[in-house]
Here is the input.
Amino acid sequence: MRSARPEERTEATTPNAGIVSLKDETGKMIHLENAMEIFKILPRTNCRDCRVPTCLAFAAAVFKGEKKLENCPHLEKDVLRMFNVQNAQSRTLEREEERALKQLKREVANVDHASAAERLGAGFSGGMLTIKCLGKDFRVDSQGNVISDVHVHGWITVPILTYVLSCSGKPASGNWVPFRELKNGASWAPLFGRRCETPLKQVADTHTDLFEHMIQVFNAKPAPNAFDSDIAVVLHPLPRLPMLICYWKPDGSMESSLNVFFDDTAEENLVIDSIYRITAGLVIMFEKIAITHDL
Ligand code: SF4
Here is the structure.
């Protein structure tokens, strides 16, 4: 990178191009000439949201023309501005999401809904599955459409359809484990901490009615004495995916703390990225509720 204010992206990465070339508003070309130069402008969190295992692997894929910079949804704002990729990034992500959703719907349409109901802990009537998510009913029709009386967020549609496809039906064992101890949890754990546990703790710290709200609105159940926490509740984001949230209040010089636990069967009933996704969506919902209704 050799310019401070490139405004216009004029050349997308092309397969086997070898060099990522961009042009600033003065017409000066910027060349990212190797994977390390691309790597330097990435967030380097290895979060895998680009569906590549590490930022370095992503940089290499961009360099080879297999991925585009905008496939990383976490580029810093100044980098986005620098490469003017924000609109392209949004469009690319939307297209990818749409494609993935269509594929999921096609696969769900091939599932025999009637015989899947028991496995999913769901109801079945009128050709539709009824799946409880946080105490609310979500119906899945024979074409894989998700319908509900409440707003159907994007973060809930994909996990519900994935659940229909991947849930083994294994009942909960009652053994709670932190997210990082799930079989595939370790590599997702930093992101889970940052996007789920930390913001949820911040809501709990500032809105003491959070847990009361969870019990009333989301059909949570108190879980007294869980891990010696001060407050604990069990929620069901999906029927066979119980989640335990434990909160420890600040004590003297000790800061407050919050952890989210899952039953150790969790990954047998939902794949790890959907476990992350539904929890992150839940946390965003709690943050919004906290802001708009001052719990
Ligand atoms: S999405 Fe971005 S930050 Fe996350 S692994 Fe991919 S390149 Fe790195």
Notes: DSSP finds ten helices and eleven strands in the chain. The radius of gyration is 22 Å. The longest helix spans residues 86-109.
